[in-house]
Amino acid sequence: MFGYLSYNKYERIKMDKMEEKEEKFTENIIPKRTKFTYENYYKLIKSHLINKNLQLALSVLDLMKENNDKPNIYIYRLLISAFAKQGDIKQCFKLYKQIKERNLIVTPHIYNNLINACAESNDREEALKHLTFLRKYFYEKKINLNNIHYSTLIKAYSWHDQISIAFEIADEAKDNGIYSKDIISALFHAIITDTKNGLKYALCLWHKMKILKMKPNIFHYNLLLRAIKKTNFGDLKINDVLIPNSKNTQIQFMNTGRSDLLDSPPILTTSLILMLKKYNYFISNNEKSEIDISNTNELLSKNLNNILKENRFLLFGGIDKFLKRMKSDDVKPDLKTTTLILDLLPSTIEAEQYYLKYVISNNFKIDITFFNMLIKRRCLRKQYNAAKDVLNEIQNHHFTPNIITFGVLAIGCIRCRDGIELLEQMDTIGYAPNFIVLETLFFNACRYKNFVYILHLMEYILHNNVIPTKNILNNLEKFDELTLEIIGNKGEYNYAKINKIKKDYNDFKIRYENWKEKIQNNIKLSK
Under a CB-based contact definition with an 8 Å cutoff, are residues 154 and 180 in contact? Predict the structure, then answer.
């Protein structure tokens, strides 16, 4: 309609001096939109990630698009790393696809995060599918993996119960000239997930390190201790060779000496037979003093896990030899080590005292957690006085009991006076008992049918305006029902005992019903 006059949308006409002055003034008053730098984008993403808002972090890509800015590889690295920690395989690979579409160079960090996404994923099938894809891609594209990649791959496969593939990955790393202490640590982590066979694999790893003259560090020792604590030997037996073509790793049987599967060669001795007999794991028909070696091999092979259950260190030279081995490797136990070893000791005061003395004389690091565990061990064995003795050790080492200390002490408070004493001690120090302490005390009082103890705890809750937990209320309800059953089933108790239970129960029942009403009122007032 307008012909060629419509060709230019705007016609630039030179401004006069007044117009130029006006434009300059406007630009000074109303500045143009501030342009984002890449540093601004990095900070924005990181701030969202600190606040655990991954979707807002992801939305920064949309902001960049609006601003006509192109995301670089570091932007993608930040995002993929965050989603990998959540095990979000789908989102990680979606971002990876964008990297490829933009022809950005994929860094080793990106590949490692993709592997880690598979490790952290709860979807095993999806994780294994993507791991297979990645391994195939690495092979076809001749991508050189480093120590961290192999360690993460081992972690990923082991977390999805693919231990054999984890060891294949380690062999692949070795073939490529990469067999570091980190990979050994990753394999230790892997075998700990296999509770049935983990300890057998741990021995294989240990002896492999010795063959390679690779000195274990504190991480290896701590992981070995975890394997000893959590896993079993599987089908391991005497005469098995732990490392193929290595005669010095064949498990041997000897009549004398101390058993030690960490030695070269690994040794089992006749002393184990005596221990098995002591705990009645088998009844020997052999009345001769001389033990039939061939039969012994079979007996020991079948009972290695039973020996482990009774004494975790017995098959590894004992606690003293284990500690000396650490010393010879120039490895000093850390806090984790001292606590792990304590948890593996035989359940005797003597073993605990020996170890505590050794720890102190060698200046090992210990903390209140160490002593809390010692208290718990003794309380579970019903050695409450010995458990309370640990409080003196805590004081001697200038530590302060914490709420967990009182929580584990509560386990041993099976008598009313012990429970009262504990609550008084907490009050003196300035601690209010948490729900764990109170639940434990109520559990003990109800378990031992101690009416006086139960009533005292009920009164304590009312007096201190404590809202009882569901567990406490359930324990009292069950105690009420159980006591009625006992009264109804008179055959198990004599006349005097039943009358005493009836009298105590009537008193309890009256006070219990009143107590429940007061508790309900307190709950209403607190709302």
Answer: no
